[in-house]
C-alpha cells in the first residue's frame, strides 16, 4: 500500500501523511491536479468525489463533494495558496455547505502536498496544519486518519493504468475492515456496455450465472432510485443444488458510473448487504469496483467462505465473452 505513515502531533498542531509511489513526481503531480484523475481516488471507498470546479492558480479554487452510498453529500473546497509544479502545492482546505461557503463550527486547515523523487519513484509528504488542538481532535474524530489512508491507497491503480493494475489478476476480494469488502475485476469493454450489462435483464441473463450448470430463471430490475429488483437461479441438467434468489432496492444511481443497491437472500431472515459499484474506464477497459457492506464481521466471513469470489469470477469471465460478441 502506498501510505507508509500517518502521525498527529498535538503540540505542533499537525497531521502528517507519508506515501510512496512507483511513478515519477510529474506523474503523481498530474494525478493530484487533474480533476478527472482526482475523482478516481479522492475520497475513501464508499465516498467518491466529484469535482465541480478546478482553477489551478494561486488564488484559484477547487470545489468538490463526496457522495455516500446512501446519497449524502459532503462538500469541500481548496483555495490554492502556492504552486511549485511538479513538486509542491499548498491549499486552504475547508468544509463547505451546498453553496460553497465554509461551514460554521468546522475548521479550515492549511495543507501542503510535497512530491520528492526517490529511488522507488516519488515520496509524498502531506502536512495539515490546524489552528487549535480542538480542531485537530475534531477532524481526527471524524475519521480523517482512516479516510485519508484509504483514499490515497487507491492512487496506485490510477498511476499504473487500469490494465497494468488489474489485467490477468481476475476477480480479487480485499477485506477493508470488519464490515466492508472490496471486489475488483477488469473487464475488456467500454463502461457504457458494462453498465448496460448490469441494468438490462436480457443482457444480465446471459452472464450473471455463476458456475456452469445454472441458469437465471428470474431477472426483474428497476435501476432507478427507489426501484426494486429480484433475481433467481436454478440448476440445469445434472447439476445438483437448490434454487435461490436475491431481492433488493436501488438506493443510488449515477449512470454509467455508480450504482448502489441493497441485497437480501429471498425467503430468508438473513440481514441485507449494501452493494456499492463504481465503473472506471480507461482505453476501452472498465474496472468494476464493488464495495460490499456487511452487518458484522461474522456475516462477512461466512459469505466469503461460500466461494463467492470464484462464482463472481465465472460470471465476469462470461461477461467479457458476451461483450466481445
Q: Which helices and strands occur, and which strands form pairs?
A:
Elements: E1 3-9, E2 14-21, H1 25-33, H2 35-38, E3 49-54, E4 61-67, E5 73-84, E6 88-95, E7 108-118, E8 121-129, H3 133-141, H4 144-152, H5 155-160, H6 162-166, E9 172-175, E10 180-188, H7 191-199, H8 201-207, E11 214-221, E12 228-235, E13 244-254, E14 258-265, E15 273-282, E16 285-293, H9 297-304, H10 308-324
Antiparallel strand pairs: 1-2, 2-8, 3-4, 4-5, 5-6, 6-7, 7-8, 9-10, 10-16, 11-12, 12-13, 13-14, 14-15, 15-16
Helix pairs in contact: 7-8
Family: Belongs to the AHA1 family.
Protein name: SRPBCC family protein
Domain Activator of Hsp90 ATPase homologue 1/2-like C-terminal: 22-159, 190-323
How would you describe what is shown here?
The protein is α+β, with helices and mostly antiparallel strands. The chain has helices spanning 25-33, 35-38, 133-141, 144-152, 155-160, 162-166, 191-199, 201-207, 297-304, 308-324, and strands at 3-9, 14-21, 49-54, 61-67, 73-84, 88-95, 108-118, 121-129, 172-175, 180-188, 214-221, 228-235, 244-254, 258-265, 273-282, 285-293. It folds into two domains: 3-160, Alpha-D-Glucose-1,6-Bisphosphate, Chain A, domain 4; 163-324, START domain (Alpha-D-Glucose-1,6-Bisphosphate, Chain A, domain 4). The strands form two sheets. An eight-stranded antiparallel beta sheet has the order 1-2-8-7-6-5-4-3. It has an eight-stranded antiparallel beta sheet with strand order 9-10-16-15-14-13-12-11. Helix 7 packs across helix 8. It starts with a strand and ends with a helix.
Amino acid at each position: 500500500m502506498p501510505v507508509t505513515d500517518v502521525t498527529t502531533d498535538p503540540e505542533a498542531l499537525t497531521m502528517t501523511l507519508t506515501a510512496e509511489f512507483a511513478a515519477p513526481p510529474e506523474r503523481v503531480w498530474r494525478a493530484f491536479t487533474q480533476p478527472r484523475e482526482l475523482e478516481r481516488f479522492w475520497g475513501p471507498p464508499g465516498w467518491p468525489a466529484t469535482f465541480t470546479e478546478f482553477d489551478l492558480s494561486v488564488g484559484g479554487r477547487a470545489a468538490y463533494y463526496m457522495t455516500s452510498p446512501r446519497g449524502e453529500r459532503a462538500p469541500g473546497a481548496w483555495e490554492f495558496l502556492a504552486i511549485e509544479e511538479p513538486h509542491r502545492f499548498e491549499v486552504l482546505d475547508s468544509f463547505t455547505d451546498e453553496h460553497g461557503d465554509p461551514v460554521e463550527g468546522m475548521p479550515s486547515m492549511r495543507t501542503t502536498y510535497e512530491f520528492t523523487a526517490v529511488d522507488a519513484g516519488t515520496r509524498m509528504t502531506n502536512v495539515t496544519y490546524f489552528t487549535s488542538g480542538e480542531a485537530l481532535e475534531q477532524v481526527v474524530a471524524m475519521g480523517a486518519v482512516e479516510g485519508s489512508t484509504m483514499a490515497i491507497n487507491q492512487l496506485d491503480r490510477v498511476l499504473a493504468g487500469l490494465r497494468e493494475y488489474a489485467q490477468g489478476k481476475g476477480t480479487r476480494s480485499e477485506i477493508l475492515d470488519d464490515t466492508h469488502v472490496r471486489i475488483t475485476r477488469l473487464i475488456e469493454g467500454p463502461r457504457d456496455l458494462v453498465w448496460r450489462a448490469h441494468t438490462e435483464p436480457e443482457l444480465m441473463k446471459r452472464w450473471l450465472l455463476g458456475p456452469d450448470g445454472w441458469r437465471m430463471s428470474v431477472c426483474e430490475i428497476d435501476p432507478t432510485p427507489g426501484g426494486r429488483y429480484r433475481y433467481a437461479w436454478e440448476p440445469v441438467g445434472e447439476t445438483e443444488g437448490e434454487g435461490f434468489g436475491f431481492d433488493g432496492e436501488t438506493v443510488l444511481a449515477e449512470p454509467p458510473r455508480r450504482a448502489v443497491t441493497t441485497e437480501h437472500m429471498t425467503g430468508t431472515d438473513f440481514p441485507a448487504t449494501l452493494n456499492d459499484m463504481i465503473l472506471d474506464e480507461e482505453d476501452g477497459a472498465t474496472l468494476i469496483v464493488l464495495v460490499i457492506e456487511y452487518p458484522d464481521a461474522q456475516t462477512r466471513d461466512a459469505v466469503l467462505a461460500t466461494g463467492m469470489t470464484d462464482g463472481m469470477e465465472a460470471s465476469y469471465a462470461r461477461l467479457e465473452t458476451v461483450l466481445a460478441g
